[in-house]
Specification:
Length: 92
């Protein structure tokens, strides 16, 4: 008999297009933490139904994280267009 792994519920669906930069960052961090938690509980048997459920949940969380990241990029782009003095730099 296999043990069931309880998966946390998905966060309430909010339209990432309407969220502030700070909220987008917080939501993305929460999703990263949920993915890490799920990674730690990956079932060993890749051929099991339990693994299929795990993989589907993992993919859904990664898709949600991608949506938040794209929305954050949009917010940065919008900010840059509104403020001609805005620059994004980094050092290598």
């Amino acid at each position: 008999m296999t043990d069931l792994i309880p998966f946390p519920a998905m966060p309430e669906e909010e339209d990432p297009q309407t969220l502030s930069r700070e909220t987008l960052l917080a939501q993305a961090q929460e999703l990263r933490e949920r993915i890490a938690d799920l990674d730690a509980r990956e079932p060993a048997d890749m051929m099991s139904a339990q693994y299929e459920r795990w993989a589907a949940r993992h993919e859904a969380l990664e898709d949600a994280l991608g949506t938040y990241c794209r929305s954050f990029q949009r917010v940065l782009s919008d900010s840059a267009q509104e403020n001609e003095h805005f620059t994004l730099t980094w050092e290598e």
